[in-house]
Amino acid sequence: MDVTSLGTGAPAGLPRPHCSCAACATALGEHARAATALLVDGVLLLDLTPGAAFAAARAGHSLGGVAQVLLSHPHDGPAMEVPAGLPQPGRVPDGRELALLTGHRVRAVALDAPGTGYAVTGPDGQRLLYLPPGGAPAGLEEGAAETYDMVLADVVGRPDALAKLRAVGAVGPTTDVIAVHLDHDVPPGAELARRLEAAGARAVPDGTTLTVGVYEDVPDVPRRTLVLGGARSGKSVEAERRLETFPGVLYVATGGARGGDTEWAARVAAHRERRPGSWRTTETCDLVPLLKEDGPPLLIDCLSLWLTDAMDGVGAWDDADWADGGERALRERVTELTTAVRTTARTVVAVSNEVGSGIVPATASGRRYRDELGRLNTAFAAECEQVLLVVAGQALPLRA
Q1: Of 142, 189, 145, whose CA–CA distance to 167 is shortest?
Q2: Would you call 271 a catalytic residue per the annotation?
Q3: Of 158, 217, 326, 367, whose CB is crowded by the most CB atoms within 10 A?
C-alpha cells in the first residue's frame, strides 16, 4: 500500500498567508507545505484540499482513479470546488467500516475533538492510521488496538495522541510515524527534525510517496538525555517536550515542597500545569532505586537540587567536615548515581543548571557548589547518548 503526501501542512498551509513570523519566513522550498491530503494507492483520497489535482500531478500521479474521497475534519471558509471526475467527499460515521471494491477497508476512528480518524487496511493487509489536525483517538483500551504499520498524525500539535497510541500498543517500535498538519509552531528544518526525532517521528516533503510496511530507519529515541541551561532558559520545557509523546512518565521532582515559600509553590504549580495529565509525580532525591527499577520513562528535574541535598548530607558547607571525609562521601554519591544511569534500562531525561559561565561566586561555599555541579554535569553527561544546552529557548545539541 502506497501513500502519497499531496500536502503535509496545517489547514492554512505553511507559510501561512500574510504571516510574518520567523517560522513562516523560513518555510521555503521543501519546507513549504500545502494543507495535508493523502492519496492512497491512487484510489482513496483522505482530505480534499485546494490544488489537490495539481499536487498529484507534480508527484507523478493522477486523481482519475480515485473511487472515494473522505474528509477528516471540518473545513473553514467557502465551499471547496470538487475537481471534475472526483466523487463527492464524505465522512464515515464513527466506528463504521467502509469497504472499497479495490480491496481497501476504511474504519472511522472516534476522536476527542471534532473530526474523524481513518484506519485503512490495504489489500495486502498493511495498516495505516490517519488522524486530523488537533485530534487524538478516544476510548482506546489497552490490548484491544491493532498495531499500525504507519501513523500519520499531528505530532507537534497533539503529542498526547501519540502517547495514547503507544499506551495501548497501537504504535510499536517499528511503526513509521509521519508528522502531518505541520504549522508554524516549530521552525522548519533542523529544529523540526530534532523535535520529531525525540518523539520517534519524522516529516517528509510534500509529494513524497511512502510504502506502508516497508522497513524505514525509524528515528532512534535516545535512552538517556541530559538537558543543561541557565535560569529561565527553557530547559525544563525542552525536557518535558522530549517525553510528551510517551505514556506514564514519572516526573521526579528533587526540590521538595518547601512549605511556606509562595514563590516556590508558584513555580511548582506552573510546572504541573504544563505536564500531561497521564504523568505521575514523585518528590525525592533518592534517584538510584528509581534508576535500578524497570518502569516508564523518568524525567528528573533537577540534578542541581539533587546536588544541594547531597552536599547538605555530607556537610559540604563546613570546611572541616568537607576536609574530614565530606568531599570523599560526595564523590561516592555521584559515582553511585552515574553508575545507576549507566546500567538503567529506563528512558531517562534529566535537567541540570549550567552555572560555570557566570560571575565567580563571592563565597567559598558558592564556589564549591559551582565546582561540584560542573563535575556532576560532566560525569552525568558521559553516561548519556544525547546532551543538549538550552539558550534563550533554543536547544543546541552538544552530543547527538
Answers
A1: 142
A2: yes
A3: 158
